[in-house]
Design a protein that fits this description.
- The chain is an alpha/beta fold.
- The chain contains 14 helices and 26 strands.
- The protein has a seven-stranded mixed beta sheet with strand order 8-9-20-21-22-19-25, sandwiched between helices. A six-stranded parallel beta sheet has the order 1-11-4-3-15-26.
- The N and C termini lie far apart (76 Å).
C-alpha cells in the first residue's frame, strides 16, 4: 500500500518549500525613472556602440553604469524589469515569482544532472533579484589571491553599498542562532559588519528597513543617461567575429532577438578600445561562448556550430557550493527573517539561518514544492497531475501554526569538487546541461559533516531552548529533514546514523554556482577571453571559488571594479 506522508512530514515539506521561497524573488517597491531603459522591440535593426554588454545582471548593471560615464554603452537583458510588478513588491509576498514556471518568469528553473533543483535569473538585476539578500564582502585573502587592487576593491564595494546594502533588524530567531553559535565556540563575536571575519557576525542585507529589496538594477541610478541604452527582453543568439584578415578572431557585434522574435544586430564602433563584454552568469556566459563558436570543438561540431576557436576549457570547472539544512519546528512564535547572522568557522563551513511564521505562501510552493517531492519518490511514468494535486491539497489543509519554525543551514567554502556544462541545443533561451559533482572531493564532504555537527550543537544550546521541542531529538529532526522532497536523489533509511549520508542525500543549492569561464583557463587576469580580441567575460563564471560566505556583494563589486579599470585604459589611450 502506498502510504502518504505524515502530518509532520507534510509540515516539513511545506517549511522546506517555504524557506527557499523565502530566499526568493522580490521586486523593489518603486521604479526609478530610467530614461535609457526600453523594450527591445523598439530597437533599430542596426546600431553601433563603444561597448556591448550581454546580460543585465548582478555584474552587468554596475559595469554598464560605470562605463556609461565616458562611453556609449548597450546593455542587453533577456528578461524584463524588476520594477512595477503589482503582485510582488516586498519581502512578505516572496512566493509568487519562484512559483512561476512560465517562459516570462524572472526565475528560470533548472535541474542539474546531479538531481538538485536550482534557478537562474531572467530579469534586470540578475541573481540579486532572486537571492536571500545577504550582503557580505569577500575575505582579504581571496582578494589577494585573485590579484585585485585592494584599494579599488574597497572603493567599489563602498560604491555598491551606498545604494543597496543595509543593516538588518535582529529579532528572536536570529538572536538565538547568534547566541547559540557563540555558546558552541564559533568566536569571536564581530557584531554587524560587511567584512569577512572568522567567528560570528551580523551581515548586511539588500532589504531595507521596510522589507523592500534593492537589486543590482538600482545601481543603474549611477549611469549617465546619455551614455547608456538598456534593452529588455533582448535575447542574444550569438557574438559575431571577424576572422578574415585578422591574426586572431575579433568580436565585433552581436545578434539578438526581441520579444516578437525580430532579429537585430548591434556592432562595435571602430576603435581599438571598444569591446563586447559577456556578463550572462555562470550558465549563460559559457553557453553564449559555445553558441558563438568558442568552446570544445567536438561539442560545437555536434551541434553544427562553426568553430571560431577550439577552447576546451569553456564550460569546465563548474562548481556549486552545496547547502545542507536542518529544519527546527518552534513551539514559540518566530519572526520572518532571511539570512542575517553567519558563523564563519575555522574548518571551511559557514552557518546561517532563516525563519518564518507561515511558510505556506501559495498553492505552489516553488523550488521545493510538493511537485518536486513527488518527483523524488514516484517513478516517472506515475508522475501524474492528480498525485501532485493531492499533495498540495493535503498541505493546504494544515493549520497555520504547524508552519512555524526555521532552518539552520551550512554551506561549505570553495568547493573543491567541480563539474562541467554542455549544450543541449542551439537555443540560447534553453538551459544547458550542467553537472556539479557535489561532494566528489572528500574534503568537501568532511566540511559538510563538521558544519552539521555545529548546527546540532546550536540546536541543543541553552540559547536555543525556547525554539525547540524537547521530544524532537536530533535523530528525529535529521530523518524528518532527509525525508522531505528537497532534491531528486534517492533516499536512504535512518541517515541520522551517518552525517556523511545525510550530506549526500539532502544536498541543496544556495545558488552560489560559478565557473565555466575561469581566469587562467578561459580568460586572463583582465578578464579578456584568451585567443580572441575585443571580448571579455566579467561575472561569476570567472570564479574558481565562491567569494566570502555569499557572493553577490563581490559580483556587484567586480562589475564596478572592472568598469573603472576599463575606463582608465580607455582614457590612457
Amino acid at each position: 500500500m502506498n502510504r502518504g506522508p505524515s502530518s509532520f512530514q507534510r509540515l516539513l515539506i511545506a517549511a522546506l518549500s517555504g524557506i527557499l521561497l523565502f530566499n526568493g524573488f522580490c521586486f523593489s517597491q518603486t521604479a526609478p525613472k530610467y530614461s535609457f531603459m526600453h523594450q527591445a522591440t523598439s530597437a533599430p535593426a542596426l546600431s553601433y556602440f563603444d561597448y556591448i554588454i550581454i546580460g543585465g545582471g548582478t555584474a552587468g548593471c554596475p559595469l554598464a553604469a560605470t562605463l556609461s560615464q565616458n562611453a556609449i554603452v548597450l546593455l542587453l537583458e533577456r528578461g524584463g524589469s524588476p520594477y512595477g510588478n503589482p503582485n510582488i513588491t516586498n519581502l512578505g509576498s516572496f512566493g509568487q515569482t519562484l512559483s512561476d514556471l512560465s517562459p516570462s518568469s524572472p526565475s528560470q528553473r533548472f535541474i542539474s544532472e546531479d538531481g538538485v533543483i536550482s534557478a537562474r535569473a531572467r530579469v534586470l538585476g540578475g541573481g540579486s533579484c532572486l537571492n536571500a539578500g545577504f550582503y557580505t564582502r569577500a575575505e582579504s585573502r581571496y582578494v589577494n589571491d585573485v590579484g585585485w587592487d585592494g584599494r579599488l576593491v574597497n572603493e567599489s564595494y563602498g560604491w555598491v553599498e551606498k545604494k543597496v546594502a543595509f543593516e538588518p533588524p535582529i529579532k528572536q530567531w536570529q538572536s538565538a542562532v547568534r547566541d547559540g553559535l557563540l555558546e558552541v565556540g564559533v568566536n569571536p563575536y564581530n557584531g554587524f559588519t560587511y567584512d569577512h571575519l572568522p567567528g560570528t557576525k551580523v551581515g548586511g542585507t539588500i532589504f531595507d528597513v521596510d522589507g523592500h529589496r534593492h537589486t543590482a538594477a538600482d545601481l543603474l541610478q549611477y549611469a549617465n543617461p546619455s551614455g547608456l541604452t538598456v534593452l529588455l527582453h533582448a535575447s542574444v543568439h550569438k557574438i559575431l567575429f571577424r576572422v578574415k584578415g585578422k591574426k586572431r578572431p575579433t568580436a565585433h557585434g552581436v545578434v539578438f532577438r526581441d520579444a516578437l522574435g525580430k532579429k537585430h544586430r548591434a556592432y562595435l564602433k571602430s576603435g581599438p578600445k571598444n569591446e563586447i563584454i559577456l556578463s550572462a552568469g555562470a550558465l549563460g556566459s559559457p553557453q553564449m561562448l559555445m553558441l558563438s563558436g568558442v568552446g570544445p570543438s567536438d561539442q560545437l561540431k555536434a551541434h553544427n556550430i562553426t568553430v571560431v576557436l577550439d577552447q576546451s576549457f569553456v564550460g569546465q570547472g563548474m562548481s556549486d557550493n552545496p547547502m545542507n539544512a536542518i529544519f527546527v519546528p518552534s513551539p514559540n512564535p518566530v519572526e520572518v527573517s532571511l539570512i542575517q547572522v553567519v558563523g564563519i568557522t575555522n574548518f571551511g563551513s559557514y552557518i546561517e539561518a532563516a525563519s518564518g511564521e507561515n511558510f505556506a505562501g501559495g498553492a505552489d510552493y516553488g523550488m521545493l514544492s510538493p511537485k518536486i517531492g513527488q518527483l523524488s519518490t514516484v517513478p516517472p511514468k506515475q508522475r501524474t497531475p492528480e498525485a501532485l494535486a493531492k499533495a498540495i491539497e493535503a498541505m493546504e489543509a494544515l493549520e497555520p501554526a504547524v508552519f512555524r519554525g526555521g532552518f539552520i543551514l551550512e554551506k561549505i567554502m570553495g568547493p573543491l569538487s567541480t563539474g562541467h556544462l554542455e549544450l543541449k541545443n542551439k537555443n540560447p533561451n534553453d538551459n544547458p546541461s550542467v553537472t556539479f559533482n557535489y561532494f566528489k572531493e572528500p574534503e568537501d564532504l568532511q566540511r559538510c559533516v563538521n558544519g552539521l555537527k555545529i548546527i546540532e550543537s546550536v540546536i541543543e544550546s541553552k540559547a536555543f531552548t525556547q525554539f525547540r521541542y524537547d521530544y524532537l531529538s536530533l535523530p528525529v529532526l535529521l530523518n524528518m529533514t532527509a525525508n522531505a522532497p528537497i532534491n531528486l536523489l534517492p533516499k536512504h533509511a535512518n541517515v541520522s546514523t551517518s552525517l556523511e549520508q545525510f550530506c549526500k542525500d539532502t544536498v541543496m543549492t544556495i545558488w552560489h554556482y560559478h565557473g565555466g569561464c575561469q581566469v587562467g583557463r578561459v580568460v586572463d587576469r583582465d578578464y579578456r577571453v584568451l585567443g580572441v580580441d575585443a571580448l571579455r567575460v566579467i561575472d561569476g563564471s570567472t570564479f574558481k571559488f565562491s567569494p566570502g560566505t555569499n557572493p553577490q556583494a563581490t559580483v556587484m563589486m567586480l562589475g564596478r571594479y572592472m568598469g573603472v579599470r576599463i575606463l582608465r585604459e580607455r582614457l590612457q589611450g
